[in-house]
TrEMBL record:
InterPro entries: DExx_box_DNA_helicase_dom_sf, DNA_helicase_UvrD/REP, P-loop_NTPase, UvrD-like_ATP-bd. One of its GO terms (biological process) is recombinational repair. Keywords: ATP-binding, DNA-binding, Helicase, Hydrolase, Nucleotide-binding. It holds the Pfam family UvrD-helicase. SUPFAM superfamilies: P-loop containing nucleoside triphosphate hydrolases. ATP binds at residues 17-24. Residues 1-266 form the UvrD-like helicase ATP-binding domain. It comes from the Bacteria. It comes from Parvibacter caecicola. This is DNA helicase-2/ATP-dependent DNA helicase PcrA. One of its GO terms (molecular function) is hydrolase activity.
Amino acid sequence: MIEEISACDERLVKVSGAAGTGKTEALIARAARLINGGADPSTILMVASTTFGAQALRERLRAALGEDNAPAANEVAITTALNAAVAVLGTPAAREATGRKPRLLAGFEHNFFIEDMKTTGQSRRQLKNVMDLFDRHWCSYDTSEDWLIPGEQTVAWQRAQEALGALGAMLPNEAPYLAARFLQENPKGRAQCGFEVVLADDFQNLSHAQQTLVCLLANRQVMVAGNGNETATCASPLPHPDGFTQFENLRNGVTCFQLETAFNNVKATAFADALAVAGADSQALTAQKRDGSATDITLVKWNMAEDEFNSLTKYLRALIADREIEESQMCVVVPNKRWARTMQQALGKRGIKTSADGAFPSLVGDPRDAARSQALIAFTKLNLLANPEDVVAWRAWCGYGHQLTHSDTWGRLLEYARQQGIPVLEALPAVAQAVAGGTEPFMKAKLIAERYNQGREFIEKNSRRKGFGLTRAAGLDGLREFKGTLDTLAGDEDAATVYAVLRDKEMNPTFTEGAHILRISSYENMVGCNYQYVVITGCVDGLMPVRDAFEVVSTDEDRKRVMDAERRLFAGAVAKAGQELMLSTFSRAQLELAEKTKMQVTRVRSDGDDRIALLRPTTFIAEARNATPSTIGGQMLLSKYDLA
């Protein structure tokens, strides 16, 4: 059927199927057929849920095109819905129509925006609820006129628009909404931004706004692939599975294909299907046939959590050598950032190169505490050197190291700029000049002047630096958040180049490419990817599913919602194993580790001076019933290679 899908020229096409049935492969086959048939690759848009999924699409498209035509894969626009929105909003017509810049706030920059929003007088909880409300309506593609209520909501909305306008920035959930509205209301802009063919993978993961945007970008054909049972919160905080399951009911003339044969590991896809059935409120979509590797899937039981890091990595080293496996065909799935770091260190000690970019965000910290935000400050310094006109960088620079990030003072600066009728970039030096002359235009203006002068002095002193001298001056050297990227530099790059690389890594992370680099991933970033060997670590309750799925203080509805979301993520990772799947669990952990990582502790025992937490394997093992993996003890596994 994949061949039939690849040849389908109908305007609206829907491809559905259970996990591992070749939905992504069908989209790749369609793109390859078009390119090999003479289509201009630049007229094709392929949309993935994550940047890692987009990277996987490009890798697989290269392989499908063959060695002679593989370079054409680089000309295809393969991206996420969010980045597609940014591209639309970056066009002159969209900039003029919206009056906004598509400069997305990074995670840590968003923290400053939230601090500034607190000046509305709302409590942290109220503000969170209001911002969540905004996100929901942006994602749901609702116009503000239909839902915005006069009062606190309107005040917060106006404050948000003013703050973002002053920063020259945009929120990630806002961008797809604005881009879709622009295309819908501007036919000329739509014609300029559109693609002949749009192929969207895991369509169910996109928000309503993202789905609308994707469809509006298609001039001749839109082909969507997915499965409502595989919905994951990775492309949007509010995915819209009904937009996929009801795709043909919402539109006329949709050609539908349903794939029925699973091609990955037979037992892994059966395991994933069993979990889909266990969690489905209605009929789950499962494979009718299976045609893949019949290798057993294994649950390895270790005694202590430390054994998983020390002994499992020892086994993986032996397995890679014995099977002559290319490390890039193996992915280790981790439940949290701590697991990612420890697993990366343990694998490194075994001589295995890894890329953990798919695990969790790299730039984190508390901007209110300078000691805990060294990486953030270094990134902002580089930002100022690369683009001294970036108001977001100046906002961050003025806020580090203060309990409230100087949000009140920054708010007074914005008010001063409004009163003077000048942009923030002109207000900053104007305030500094006034303070130097002995006048404070507003309360604590001296603080803004001091920070601005420090920033200008830093820029003037280091603006001509390049390469390693530049990274030292910005404070990037020695910070683990940047080490992997800095190691790839030639040593003669200017600030704009280095900043572009680091910002792209933060906003659009991908795995380091190389045949002998093993990949470490979170569950969310397994979406859209596929590996011959998948090893899922930390398979204990509390890590997978997370503790919120068991909390007695939550309502039954909340626990079910969390459990269902976690089950879909787990099943999705399980189904990505093309040849072999291994799950790793342990029965005990140091109580301190268990509490810090929020494992679901069943009992606590004393072992000498140590307090040991007793744990359960992930509840999803029992849910799969007859499809559960075979179990083997850790020492028995090691004995296969005489490692015990």
